[in-house]
């Protein structure tokens, strides 16, 4: 245990529990080193799959791969599916083809699709070839829908019943066909003879209704409207809006094809949030197992863009080389205007990106936001223009310099407020993700304004 | 319709549907202006509460308040609870005390708590006084738990059954007591005579099990472990980890007190994500109905901190006033080093904050991250040092200047990589939110390094 850092991880976990957990982590690590497959297998199956997956994720990548190899066929499928993306991919990489095929046959259809996505094209072909043709066809079905659609995310196992069934009929059917039903579901979908979706009966409603009542009489209208080719982000939005635990997925003719459950949707929400947060800071993607090369690849492109924009700002400054040469204080104060202006722009940008993501920027709201952000820039501009002017004037004992930096600061703040909201709205309008590239644009715009106004005014006022 | 902007809101919505929606929005607006209460009330009740709430949120704040006043007692409770925080607060503000009291009596306990939270202390007292003492006691119960705990978020309505009951017994009980059960639930909680939680039976399991089987024989262990005083963020983490749709909430003695459902948890996840995104950009809070004053209040404090740090950077530059006076090109290139270094630091910071939020930064992982980020800084440092040196050297035709900026750039990148990850980890260790204030620290650290190394080296090499 001595090689574990004592960084505090979570105030909620009490000390003895935490120590027991660290000891278990260390035992797992040692079991891998000592190739104690039996102990490892028994320990992992004793835990909830999510906890077992957590434990394995504490291993270094090499130890993890070693553990998967050791366990081989004995690594429970439940644990594989609970692993974080990068570890699951690693596990699938390390397992032999037959083991992966065996895993696929055990899983619900949405999890099958997840695993198939992890595989290289030719390995996927090879593994699917190992399966009986009818299994193969069924496994590949989810894979036929485009990435990031509801079709990819849904499972094709659900409980559907015709309208004329009674509650008793539905319950009897469930008892007789227990094995064909998905492990978890929260609603019975009511369909007509052509498999069109007519309504849904929440299990809680089914439970409290007498046996002889018809499903048609207790079914609710399905509020969500999720089609197989709908973007998963839009589907997640409907889950949030209607507070759903699960929802039916249909084709264009409203025929029932599958079911989305909230656990998958929560993952989508997390993903989208993470993407926004990273994109705003100029990172394309990131996860816990990234190598240095992954990190460089995810960040260098935006740094390269920033290289260009930084030299544009330099170009602006160089226009005023003569002015700076005469008043060196300008060089000292220049970064203050740029830093504060950039900060104001980033603030407005974060607020706008959040509002767009939460659909608070439709219609009138976007116009109101533009006005509000510009006025906020104006208000903060007044406050910080006075502050900066006072400090600079006092420092360099110059009213002219104070006036110059004050006006420049004010102009930059108003401009920052406006660009912080207009840039993401413009990107959205062009069909681009408003979070991606916004920062670079906004910071360039505020830098240009900061340097141009400060040095330009200095040339006019101070020379 | 002509006064509505044509900003594209969602590619998924087709044009005719979108136009119909805009027309409906306009009709609602006009109904408010014309005080057509009857049409308004009928239109809103016809829609799903979430859709009706959406529609009302399209109104300006004044029109919205007007609409609530018009509808008065006829604004359905379902719609109130679906409104976004700021609109719900507004609605509760506008409604008379008796109307709010009537709303409270209709709601599930978790929604009651939400509304009570919206009220000013003395108004809450006044409204609670209007209720019968026993109602009041029950309504206030949820409010007794601290803010942001599972106790505040949970509802006290759930379905619990003793271990010796059979499936048939549970179903019969649900049918006979249909009205006492919550509208939505996904599990039956199995308790002992002292109300201690023994296990749970998902409704899907209940449904497919024969009537004479005992609940004790089909119940599952409850994987989550959520106590009333647990932080809601920790509860949300358990929902994600164990893919839950609902979970029981217990006291310290493991007695069942309430139930959390995933729709409330999804809101918590969104909130936490939003907080991180805003905090990273130096904004304390934001929502769609913020006034300019709200925005200034949420942002000025961080701008004030930035004002101080910007002048610290200026102070560093002023140390080298003499050098800049002799070589004005330094003033032109200075911001390039600061901008790129700051960008590299922000990238690392965003990655670290995300990893901490997703609990990928425990134990060994944080040490690995520090190494990876520093090496990433090193790698990007080499690439961009060469790039910047080449451009600067070519621009100003000076090998010395190229060398100076190249080395400074490299040092700043390595430093940025290290600070980007160490600052949030240090904040977390001190028990602070790693997203809040991180940006200011990281940018100050990179600015200081950028200016100090570039101007310092220039003094050594070029003078």
Automatic annotation (TrEMBL), chains A, B:
| Cited InterPro entries | CBS_dom, CBS_dom_sf, Mg_transptr_MgtE_intracell_dom, MgtE_N_sf, MgtE_transporter, SLC41_membr_dom, SLC41_membr_dom_sf
| Subunit organization | Homodimer.
Domain (CBS): residue spans on this chain: 219-275
User: This chain belongs to which protein, by name?
Assistant: Magnesium transporter MgtE
Where it mainly occurs, coarsely classed, is membrane
Q: Where, by residue number, does the polypeptide cross the bilayer? A: 302-320, 332-357, 378-396, 402-427, 439-462
Give the matching PROSITE patterns.
Answer: CBS
Assigned keywords, A-Z: CBS domain, Cell membrane, Magnesium, Membrane, Metal-binding, Transmembrane, Transmembrane helix, Transport
CDD domains referenced in this protein's UniProt entry, alphabetically: CBS_pair_Mg_transporter
Q: Name one Pfam family in it.
A: MgtE_N
- What family classification does the UniProt entry report for this protein? Belongs to the SLC41A transporter family.
Reported function: Acts as a magnesium transporter.
Subcellular location per UniProt equals: Cell membrane; Membrane
- Write down the membrane topology: Multi-pass membrane protein
The protein's superkingdom reads: Bacteria
The reply to whether Metal-binding figures as a keyword in the UniProt entry is yes
Which species is this record about? Answer: Henriciella pelagia
